[in-house]
Design brief:
Number of helices: 4
Largest sheet: 3 strands, antiparallel
Strand content: 5-15%
Helix content: 40-55%
Structural class: alpha+beta
Radius of gyration: 17 Å
Distance between the termini: 36 Å
Strand order of the largest sheet: 1-4-5
Order of helices and strands: EEEEHHEHH
Number of strands: 5
Length: about 140
């Protein structure tokens, strides 16, 4: 079989400069200023399902039953997998300015996603929709 060219995957690069956290003294911090994430364009149903599940969990909040806690773990795992599938590349660094693993290393990348702060995961989740926007010709 002849070598095939890798399939083109439409994508969008989203700067991370708008990820802002505010400390107890009201000072703004931009932990990923100058960094970016390349998202796959489009949004598979698996992501929509994971995001819907995450929204349902947010509505339950602290009133979660033990059964719902198990469901929450499964929904979080689905969300991590969905986000991992949509990120084609990134140049994010950790608190010590060390680069996080790239998405090509799937196992290490998913492990990094599990260790991100909640505000980082919320930012990634909120920007998944940037790749789903339909462009008019």
């Amino acid at each position: 079989m002849a070598d095939r060219e890798r399939k083109y995957v439409p994508s969008i690069v989203v700067p991370s400069d708008d990820l802002v956290i505010v400390d107890d003294e009201g000072k703004e911090h931009r932990p990923h200023a100058g960094e970016w994430v390349r998202f796959r364009k489009g949004m598979p149903l698996s992501i929509m399902r994971a995001m819907t599940g995450a929204a349902e969990l947010a509505n339950i909040g602290e009133n979660m039953t033990p059964g719902q806690a198990g469901d929450a773990q499964a929904l979080l795992a689905d969300l991590i997998d969905a986000i991992a599938q949509q990120i084609l590349d990134w140049n994010w660094t950790d608190a010590d300015w060390q680069p996080h693993p790239r998405p090509a290393d799937a196992a290490a990348f998913r492990e990094v996603l599990w260790r991100l702060e909640d505000y980082e995961m919320k930012w990634l989740q909120s920007h998944l929709a940037d790749g789903a926007k339909v462009e008019k010709n």
